[in-house]
Design brief:
zinc ion binding; alpha/beta; Immunoglobulin-like; metallocarboxypeptidase activity; about 30% helix; about 500 residues
Length: about 500
């Protein structure tokens, strides 16, 4: 590490620590509570310059990535504005692998890379690797495991991309156990162990694309046990650009490479739902982490209520003890981030504001770096909750917008009104006109879709308006007693050209 780099990172630590504890102390003074939590100084009190590399965030693209983004044409019997099936395909045969799993010790970074490489190569095509770029400050590569159906398309029979879920672990280098949980999850998925044992895992495999980034902060963890000095120094690394254009105190500060790699990767392969993992507490933390530019407000709506809290509650309810957490400000093992401690520029707020998707922050182990012997029960406590959350990646409207005449995919601006507010999203012509709007059970959503053809701006299309509500009940989602198809409404939206409406509709 160069002297300049050391100075820069120490400066980050100083800045982040100061701002974080200023907010924590303000909270403690106002509430009389003692903070007991994973310190998350991934705050951004500065105008962080975000250089998007979304067009090429990987060191090397893989077939899985390409398949995920391809466009499958409509089937000949696709009906206008038709409600399709739940998009759940027939369970697929499970692969086998010779790669063994052992809880005996934590993986060093080289051991992790070797393990994943061997796991993928023996997964019979179930898994592949992607490499978010750039590497860490110390030059360690950040790796992602991609899991999908064996010998299957990444897309559903309806032509919609599969629902996708992304896990991001080990944001803070000294919170190590969650990294091992994600490696265990990767092994269970890629080896076929989980699918062989449970039909719900098979259904997930057939219907959902899962990406796992076991560590986004390898410098803070390698070699095990964690290099605590390095872990502390890198606490400032996982900062994300402020989600909105706030007037921020201080000067300008560039993001560190780890944050750049993850934000670029998530922009490139936008997950329908995602989560990042921590240790130091036991709670499911949901957006928003910051209600204003200074962290003064301690509660605020997102415009998607009650969905963020519902996702956190679903995880907590599937965990054997998380939902027992009711110490203020926790409610049944959940908390809105800002109510716990405000974080400016957090990952989950960035995903919500910039990518327009939901992301929650899971604190899974009160001891940040527990002995390896405690990892098996930790896995048992979380694996069902992990499955539950991944299943909910499909909860909402999944749709594609196409030209009614040519069936070609279109882009669109989509406005969605619910009792909680109005949210916008966009349909992506390069992904077959696909858009996804997460929805909460029992809430009526009013959609207004304005299609356009990015390759031909002279064409104009009629606006498409409709309303949708999921019939599944909240209690059923919390309990996990749903069928996956109940969580999804899929539609193909036919866009009629404004200047040819009469002839097309005859
Ligand atoms: Zn943490």
């Amino acid at each position: 590490m160069s002297g300049g780099a050391a100075f820069r990172r120490l400066r980050l630590l100083h800045i982040a620590t100061f701002a974080t504890w200023a907010l924590i102390c303000a909270h403690s003074a106002s509430t009389g509570t003692t903070p007991k939590r994973c310190p998350r100084p991934d705050i951004d009190c500065f105008n962080a310059a975000f250089t998007s590399t979304a067009s090429s965030p990987l060191h090397a693209a893989t077939d899985a990535t390409a398949a995920d983004r391809k466009f499958l044409p409509l089937s000949s019997n696709a009906a206008s504005d038709a409600v399709l099936s739940g998009g759940v395909a027939t369970p697929t045969p499970t692969p086998t692998t010779t790669t063994a799993w052992s809880w005996k010790s934590y993986h060093s970074h080289p051991e992790m890379l070797d393990f994943l490489s061997e796991l993928v190569s023996s997964s019979d095509g179930a898994c592949s690797l992607e490499w978010p770029s750039p590497s860490s400050v110390e030059g360690r590569r950040i790796v992602a495991v991609v899991w999908s159906a064996v010998n299957g398309s990444s897309d559903s029979p309806s032509g919609l991309p599969k629902p996708s879920f992304t896990w991001v672990g080990n944001m803070h280098g000294d919170e190590t156990a969650n990294r091992e949980l994600l490696l265990r999850l990767a092994w269970g998925l890629c080896s076929g162990e989980l699918a062989a044992a449970d039909g719900r895992w098979r259904e997930l495999q057939a219907s959902t694309l899962v990406r796992i980034v076991p560590t986004m902060n390898p410098d803070g963890t390698d070699p095990p046990p964690p290099n605590l000095a390095m872990a502390a120094t890198l606490q400032g690394a996982p900062r994300f650009p402020a989600a909105v254009s706030w007037t921020l105190v201080g000067g300008s500060l560039n993001m560190q490479p780890e944050a750049n790699a993850i934000s670029s990767y998530l922009s490139y392969a936008v997950p329908d739902l995602s989560a990042n993992l921590h240790g130091g507490a036991l709670v499911a933390n949901y957006p928003l982490d910051a209600c204003d530019s200074l962290g003064a407000r301690r509660s605020c709506p997102t415009g998607d209520e009650p969905l963020p809290e519902l996702l956190a509650s679903a995880y907590a309810a599937a965990h054997p003890s998380m939902a027992l957490g009711n110490a203020t400000p926790f409610v049944s093992g959940t908390v809105q981030g800002a109510a716990w401690y405000p974080v400016l520029g957090s990952l989950q707020d960035w995903v919500y504001h910039v990518l327009g998707r939901l992301h929650i922050t899971l604190e899974l182990h009160p001891v940040k770096n527990p002995p390896a012997a405690s990892l098996p029960p930790l896995w048992e406590a979380n694996r069902r909750a992990m499955l539950r959350l991944m299943e909910l990646a499909r909860m909402g409207l999944r749709a594609r917008v196409v030209d009614a005449v040519t069936r070609g995919p279109l882009a669109a601006n989509v406005s969605v009104a619910s009792p909680a507010g109005v949210r916008g999203t966009t349909a992506d012509a390069e992904r077959g006109g696909y858009f996804f709007k997460p929805m909460a059970p029992g809430v009526k959503y009013e959609f207004v879709v304005q299609p356009y053809d990015p390759s031909n701006p002279n064409l104009s299309y009629d606006e498409i308006s409709f309303s949708v509500a999921l019939s599944v009940r909240r209690e059923v989602v919390i309990s996990g007693a749903y069928r996956m198809r109940e969580l999804t409404v899929e539609r193909v939206l036919m866009a009629f050209r404004s200047n040819a409406t009469a002839s097309v509709r005859k």
